[in-house]
Design goal:
Layout: H1 5-15, H2 18-36, E1 52-55, E2 62-65, H3 68-78, H4 80-87, E3 111-115, E4 121-127, E5 137-145, H5 150-153, H6 155-158, H7 160-166, E6 170-178, H8 182-189, E7 196-207, E8 217-227, E9 233-239, E10 255-256, E11 258-270, E12 273-283, H9 290-312, H10 319-331
Parallel strand pairs: 8-10
Antiparallel strand pairs: 1-2, 3-4, 4-5, 5-12, 6-7, 7-8, 8-9, 9-11, 11-12
Protein backbone atom coordinates (compact mmCIF):
# COMPACT_ATOMS: atom_id res chain seq x y z
CA UNK A 1 0.00 0.00 0.00
CA UNK A 2 1.35 3.42 -0.94
CA UNK A 3 1.61 5.88 1.93
CA UNK A 4 1.27 9.56 1.04
CA UNK A 5 3.74 12.19 2.21
CA UNK A 6 0.92 14.01 4.01
CA UNK A 7 0.16 10.87 6.01
CA UNK A 8 3.85 10.54 6.95
CA UNK A 9 3.90 14.16 8.09
CA UNK A 10 0.75 13.64 10.15
CA UNK A 11 2.21 10.57 11.88
CA UNK A 12 5.49 12.34 12.55
CA UNK A 13 3.80 15.31 14.13
CA UNK A 14 1.67 13.18 16.41
CA UNK A 15 4.63 11.09 17.63
CA UNK A 16 7.36 13.68 17.96
CA UNK A 17 7.60 16.25 20.74
CA UNK A 18 6.13 19.61 19.75
CA UNK A 19 9.53 21.25 19.30
CA UNK A 20 10.81 18.53 17.00
CA UNK A 21 7.56 18.55 15.05
CA UNK A 22 7.84 22.30 14.56
CA UNK A 23 11.40 21.98 13.28
CA UNK A 24 10.32 19.26 10.85
CA UNK A 25 7.40 21.35 9.66
CA UNK A 26 9.54 24.44 9.11
CA UNK A 27 12.14 22.44 7.16
CA UNK A 28 9.51 20.93 4.89
CA UNK A 29 7.81 24.27 4.28
CA UNK A 30 11.12 26.03 3.69
CA UNK A 31 11.97 23.42 1.09
CA UNK A 32 8.64 23.85 -0.68
CA UNK A 33 8.95 27.63 -0.65
CA UNK A 34 12.47 27.54 -2.00
CA UNK A 35 11.39 25.60 -5.09
CA UNK A 36 8.76 28.21 -5.90
CA UNK A 37 10.56 31.37 -4.80
CA UNK A 38 11.86 32.09 -8.30
CA UNK A 39 8.29 32.63 -9.55
CA UNK A 40 9.07 30.64 -12.70
CA UNK A 41 6.27 28.06 -12.61
CA UNK A 42 2.94 29.19 -14.10
CA UNK A 43 0.02 29.40 -11.69
CA UNK A 44 -2.51 28.19 -14.28
CA UNK A 45 -2.27 26.07 -17.43
CA UNK A 46 -3.76 27.28 -20.71
CA UNK A 47 -3.66 23.79 -22.22
CA UNK A 48 -6.86 22.05 -21.16
CA UNK A 49 -5.24 18.63 -20.80
CA UNK A 50 -2.85 20.07 -18.18
CA UNK A 51 -5.51 21.80 -16.12
CA UNK A 52 -6.77 20.57 -12.76
CA UNK A 53 -10.36 21.64 -12.21
CA UNK A 54 -13.10 21.48 -9.61
CA UNK A 55 -16.85 21.75 -10.26
CA UNK A 56 -18.58 24.91 -9.10
CA UNK A 57 -22.09 25.14 -7.70
CA UNK A 58 -23.22 26.36 -11.11
CA UNK A 59 -24.05 23.39 -13.30
CA UNK A 60 -21.57 22.96 -16.13
CA UNK A 61 -19.03 25.49 -14.82
CA UNK A 62 -15.63 24.09 -13.89
CA UNK A 63 -13.05 26.14 -11.97
CA UNK A 64 -9.39 25.72 -12.84
CA UNK A 65 -7.34 25.24 -9.70
CA UNK A 66 -3.91 26.86 -9.51
CA UNK A 67 -0.62 25.14 -8.83
CA UNK A 68 -0.96 25.31 -5.06
CA UNK A 69 2.72 24.62 -4.40
CA UNK A 70 3.56 27.62 -6.56
CA UNK A 71 0.79 29.77 -5.07
CA UNK A 72 1.75 29.19 -1.46
CA UNK A 73 5.45 29.19 -2.30
CA UNK A 74 5.09 32.70 -3.72
CA UNK A 75 3.16 33.86 -0.67
CA UNK A 76 5.72 32.45 1.75
CA UNK A 77 8.52 34.11 -0.21
CA UNK A 78 7.05 37.59 0.35
CA UNK A 79 5.19 37.11 3.65
CA UNK A 80 7.24 35.85 6.63
CA UNK A 81 4.09 35.83 8.76
CA UNK A 82 2.32 33.56 6.27
CA UNK A 83 5.32 31.24 6.35
CA UNK A 84 5.07 31.20 10.14
CA UNK A 85 1.36 30.35 9.92
CA UNK A 86 2.12 27.39 7.66
CA UNK A 87 4.73 26.13 10.15
CA UNK A 88 2.14 25.92 12.92
CA UNK A 89 4.73 27.09 15.44
CA UNK A 90 4.23 30.85 15.67
CA UNK A 91 1.09 31.45 17.73
CA UNK A 92 0.86 32.70 21.31
CA UNK A 93 3.06 34.92 23.46
CA UNK A 94 6.36 35.59 21.75
CA UNK A 95 4.89 34.56 18.42
CA UNK A 96 3.68 36.55 15.45
CA UNK A 97 6.13 39.15 14.19
CA UNK A 98 8.46 38.42 17.12
CA UNK A 99 9.01 34.91 15.76
CA UNK A 100 9.32 35.51 12.00
CA UNK A 101 12.40 34.95 9.86
CA UNK A 102 12.33 38.36 8.22
CA UNK A 103 14.26 37.61 5.05
CA UNK A 104 13.29 39.35 1.80
CA UNK A 105 12.53 37.38 -1.37
CA UNK A 106 15.67 36.18 -3.13
CA UNK A 107 17.24 38.96 -5.19
CA UNK A 108 15.08 41.73 -3.69
CA UNK A 109 15.11 44.15 -0.78
CA UNK A 110 12.10 45.71 0.91
CA UNK A 111 12.04 49.50 1.13
CA UNK A 112 10.36 50.87 4.26
CA UNK A 113 7.67 53.42 3.46
CA UNK A 114 6.35 53.99 6.98
CA UNK A 115 7.31 52.70 10.42
CA UNK A 116 5.74 53.64 13.75
CA UNK A 117 5.31 51.07 16.54
CA UNK A 118 2.59 53.15 18.19
CA UNK A 119 0.20 52.80 15.23
CA UNK A 120 -2.08 49.89 14.35
CA UNK A 121 -0.33 49.58 11.00
CA UNK A 122 3.18 49.88 12.37
CA UNK A 123 5.12 49.16 9.19
CA UNK A 124 4.57 49.49 5.44
CA UNK A 125 7.13 48.26 2.91
CA UNK A 126 7.39 48.02 -0.87
CA UNK A 127 9.43 46.45 -3.64
CA UNK A 128 9.16 48.37 -6.91
CA UNK A 129 8.54 46.56 -10.20
CA UNK A 130 8.43 43.21 -8.41
CA UNK A 131 9.09 40.30 -10.79
CA UNK A 132 9.31 42.89 -13.61
CA UNK A 133 5.52 43.10 -13.69
CA UNK A 134 5.42 46.88 -13.35
CA UNK A 135 3.55 47.70 -10.12
CA UNK A 136 5.21 47.51 -6.72
CA UNK A 137 4.37 44.77 -4.27
CA UNK A 138 3.20 46.36 -1.01
CA UNK A 139 3.25 44.96 2.51
CA UNK A 140 1.33 46.22 5.54
CA UNK A 141 2.06 44.96 9.06
CA UNK A 142 -0.39 45.50 11.88
CA UNK A 143 -0.96 44.28 15.43
CA UNK A 144 -4.61 44.17 16.41
CA UNK A 145 -6.92 43.52 19.32
CA UNK A 146 -9.88 41.19 18.96
CA UNK A 147 -10.57 37.59 17.95
CA UNK A 148 -8.23 36.06 15.37
CA UNK A 149 -10.79 34.70 12.93
CA UNK A 150 -9.91 34.46 9.24
CA UNK A 151 -13.41 34.18 7.81
CA UNK A 152 -14.63 37.08 9.93
CA UNK A 153 -11.66 39.26 8.98
CA UNK A 154 -12.38 38.50 5.32
CA UNK A 155 -15.72 40.28 5.73
CA UNK A 156 -13.83 43.56 5.40
CA UNK A 157 -12.78 42.48 1.92
CA UNK A 158 -15.70 40.42 0.58
CA UNK A 159 -18.70 42.07 2.23
CA UNK A 160 -19.81 45.03 0.09
CA UNK A 161 -20.92 47.24 2.98
CA UNK A 162 -17.82 46.61 5.07
CA UNK A 163 -15.60 47.01 2.00
CA UNK A 164 -17.17 50.34 1.06
CA UNK A 165 -16.52 51.62 4.59
CA UNK A 166 -12.80 51.78 3.77
CA UNK A 167 -12.76 51.54 -0.03
CA UNK A 168 -15.39 53.97 -1.41
CA UNK A 169 -14.38 53.20 -5.01
CA UNK A 170 -15.90 49.70 -4.81
CA UNK A 171 -19.20 49.43 -6.65
CA UNK A 172 -19.70 45.70 -6.26
CA UNK A 173 -18.02 42.57 -4.97
CA UNK A 174 -19.98 39.45 -5.83
CA UNK A 175 -19.57 35.73 -5.45
CA UNK A 176 -20.03 34.14 -8.86
CA UNK A 177 -18.74 30.57 -8.75
CA UNK A 178 -18.32 28.88 -5.38
CA UNK A 179 -16.46 25.59 -5.54
CA UNK A 180 -18.99 22.80 -5.06
CA UNK A 181 -16.90 20.57 -2.79
CA UNK A 182 -13.96 21.88 -0.78
CA UNK A 183 -12.59 18.37 -0.41
CA UNK A 184 -11.65 18.59 -4.09
CA UNK A 185 -9.45 21.57 -3.31
CA UNK A 186 -8.00 19.98 -0.19
CA UNK A 187 -7.10 16.85 -2.15
CA UNK A 188 -5.36 19.03 -4.75
CA UNK A 189 -3.46 20.75 -1.93
CA UNK A 190 -2.30 17.48 -0.41
CA UNK A 191 -4.74 17.17 2.52
CA UNK A 192 -3.25 19.23 5.33
CA UNK A 193 -0.04 20.21 3.57
CA UNK A 194 -1.25 23.81 3.50
CA UNK A 195 -3.73 23.74 6.38
CA UNK A 196 -7.46 23.32 5.79
CA UNK A 197 -9.03 25.17 2.87
CA UNK A 198 -12.35 26.31 4.34
CA UNK A 199 -13.42 28.77 1.64
CA UNK A 200 -12.74 28.88 -2.10
CA UNK A 201 -14.33 30.54 -5.09
CA UNK A 202 -14.13 32.73 -8.16
CA UNK A 203 -15.70 36.14 -8.15
CA UNK A 204 -15.99 39.51 -9.74
CA UNK A 205 -15.16 43.03 -8.58
CA UNK A 206 -16.19 46.30 -10.19
CA UNK A 207 -14.96 49.73 -9.14
CA UNK A 208 -16.40 53.19 -9.64
CA UNK A 209 -14.73 55.98 -11.55
CA UNK A 210 -12.11 57.68 -9.36
CA UNK A 211 -12.28 61.47 -8.80
CA UNK A 212 -8.74 61.90 -10.13
CA UNK A 213 -9.81 60.59 -13.52
CA UNK A 214 -9.40 56.80 -13.29
CA UNK A 215 -12.17 55.01 -15.18
CA UNK A 216 -14.04 52.01 -13.65
CA UNK A 217 -12.11 48.73 -13.43
CA UNK A 218 -13.09 45.07 -13.20
CA UNK A 219 -11.40 41.94 -11.86
CA UNK A 220 -11.95 38.18 -11.99
CA UNK A 221 -10.17 36.56 -9.08
CA UNK A 222 -9.70 33.15 -7.50
CA UNK A 223 -9.53 33.47 -3.71
CA UNK A 224 -9.60 31.20 -0.68
CA UNK A 225 -9.04 30.93 3.05
CA UNK A 226 -6.80 28.45 4.86
CA UNK A 227 -7.26 27.60 8.54
CA UNK A 228 -4.57 26.20 10.81
CA UNK A 229 -4.76 24.22 14.05
CA UNK A 230 -3.07 26.95 16.13
CA UNK A 231 -5.77 29.50 15.23
CA UNK A 232 -3.82 31.18 12.42
CA UNK A 233 -5.44 31.87 9.07
CA UNK A 234 -4.48 32.90 5.56
CA UNK A 235 -6.58 34.69 2.95
CA UNK A 236 -5.11 34.45 -0.52
CA UNK A 237 -5.95 35.29 -4.11
CA UNK A 238 -4.72 35.80 -7.64
CA UNK A 239 -6.14 37.10 -10.90
CA UNK A 240 -7.62 34.61 -13.37
CA UNK A 241 -6.08 34.38 -16.84
CA UNK A 242 -7.46 35.44 -20.24
CA UNK A 243 -8.66 31.91 -21.01
CA UNK A 244 -10.98 32.24 -18.01
CA UNK A 245 -12.72 35.33 -19.43
CA UNK A 246 -15.83 33.29 -20.26
CA UNK A 247 -16.52 33.43 -16.52
CA UNK A 248 -16.93 37.20 -16.59
CA UNK A 249 -20.51 38.47 -16.27
CA UNK A 250 -22.37 39.60 -19.37
CA UNK A 251 -22.16 43.27 -20.26
CA UNK A 252 -19.71 45.87 -21.46
CA UNK A 253 -16.12 45.05 -20.60
CA UNK A 254 -14.14 47.51 -18.50
CA UNK A 255 -10.41 48.06 -18.19
CA UNK A 256 -9.05 45.02 -16.41
CA UNK A 257 -7.16 45.51 -13.17
CA UNK A 258 -5.08 42.57 -11.96
CA UNK A 259 -4.04 41.39 -8.53
CA UNK A 260 -0.88 39.47 -9.35
CA UNK A 261 -0.61 38.30 -5.74
CA UNK A 262 -2.73 38.86 -2.66
CA UNK A 263 -2.50 37.43 0.84
CA UNK A 264 -3.48 38.32 4.39
CA UNK A 265 -1.87 36.25 7.15
CA UNK A 266 -3.31 36.29 10.68
CA UNK A 267 -1.42 34.77 13.64
CA UNK A 268 -2.73 34.94 17.24
CA UNK A 269 -0.23 36.39 19.71
CA UNK A 270 -2.19 36.02 22.92
CA UNK A 271 -5.72 36.18 24.26
CA UNK A 272 -7.71 38.44 21.94
CA UNK A 273 -4.59 39.65 20.09
CA UNK A 274 -3.15 38.86 16.68
CA UNK A 275 -0.66 40.06 14.09
CA UNK A 276 -1.59 40.69 10.45
CA UNK A 277 0.55 40.86 7.33
CA UNK A 278 -1.25 42.08 4.20
CA UNK A 279 0.46 41.58 0.81
CA UNK A 280 -0.78 43.00 -2.49
CA UNK A 281 0.64 43.56 -5.94
CA UNK A 282 -2.09 45.31 -7.90
CA UNK A 283 -1.92 46.54 -11.49
CA UNK A 284 -4.62 49.11 -12.29
CA UNK A 285 -4.36 48.38 -16.01
CA UNK A 286 -4.56 50.94 -18.80
CA UNK A 287 -1.76 53.46 -19.13
CA UNK A 288 -1.74 54.75 -15.57
CA UNK A 289 1.75 55.21 -14.11
CA UNK A 290 2.41 53.04 -11.07
CA UNK A 291 3.88 55.96 -9.15
CA UNK A 292 0.39 57.51 -9.23
CA UNK A 293 -1.68 54.43 -8.36
CA UNK A 294 0.52 52.86 -5.67
CA UNK A 295 -0.16 55.62 -3.06
CA UNK A 296 -3.91 55.14 -3.60
CA UNK A 297 -3.60 51.44 -2.79
CA UNK A 298 -1.31 52.10 0.18
CA UNK A 299 -3.69 54.54 1.85
CA UNK A 300 -6.81 52.52 1.05
CA UNK A 301 -5.58 49.31 2.71
CA UNK A 302 -4.18 51.26 5.66
CA UNK A 303 -7.66 52.71 6.12
CA UNK A 304 -9.10 49.18 6.22
CA UNK A 305 -7.22 48.48 9.45
CA UNK A 306 -8.51 51.72 10.98
CA UNK A 307 -12.07 50.66 10.18
CA UNK A 308 -11.65 47.03 11.25
CA UNK A 309 -9.99 47.64 14.63
CA UNK A 310 -12.89 49.30 16.49
CA UNK A 311 -15.31 46.73 15.06
CA UNK A 312 -13.14 43.83 16.24
CA UNK A 313 -12.91 45.33 19.76
CA UNK A 314 -16.69 45.42 20.05
CA UNK A 315 -16.79 43.19 23.14
CA UNK A 316 -19.77 41.67 24.88
CA UNK A 317 -23.09 42.14 23.10
CA UNK A 318 -21.43 43.62 20.03
CA UNK A 319 -21.83 42.78 16.38
CA UNK A 320 -18.58 40.84 16.43
CA UNK A 321 -19.79 38.64 19.30
CA UNK A 322 -23.05 38.01 17.49
CA UNK A 323 -21.17 37.17 14.31
CA UNK A 324 -18.97 34.62 16.08
CA UNK A 325 -21.97 32.96 17.70
CA UNK A 326 -23.86 32.74 14.42
CA UNK A 327 -20.95 31.43 12.39
CA UNK A 328 -19.65 28.87 14.88
CA UNK A 329 -22.39 26.38 14.09
CA UNK A 330 -22.10 27.03 10.36
CA UNK A 331 -18.33 26.52 10.34
CA UNK A 332 -18.79 23.17 12.07
CA UNK A 333 -21.39 22.08 9.52
CA UNK A 334 -20.13 19.99 6.62
CA UNK A 335 -22.83 21.44 4.41
CA UNK A 336 -21.40 24.93 4.90
CA UNK A 337 -17.98 23.98 3.56
CA UNK A 338 -18.53 25.94 0.37
CA UNK A 339 -16.75 28.94 -1.06
CA UNK A 340 -16.00 32.56 -0.43
CA UNK A 341 -15.54 35.38 -2.80
CA UNK A 342 -13.41 38.30 -1.91
CA UNK A 343 -11.42 40.13 -4.50
CA UNK A 344 -8.54 42.33 -3.37
Amino acid sequence: MEISSSAIMSTARSSLPRQAACILSILLISSNAATSAAFTTPMFQEKVTLQRTAPSKTCGVEIELPNFDEMFGRIQAVSPLAKLAFSGCGAGEGGGFEAIDDKPPAGYKWKTVEKNKRKIVHQIDRIDNFQNLGPPILRWRASMEGPCHGVMFAEFIMNVEKRQAWDPQIENVCEMYPVYDLDTANIAMGFGKFGDCCKLGVGYTKTKAHPIGISPREQLTLCGIQKFDDGSALMWGTEMEEWHDHLLPEGERLTRAKSHLFSVALVPTGENKFDVEYILQLDFGGNLPHWMTAPLVLDSVKNMFSVAQPWLKGGEGSEVEQYLEETKALEESFDDRNSILFTP
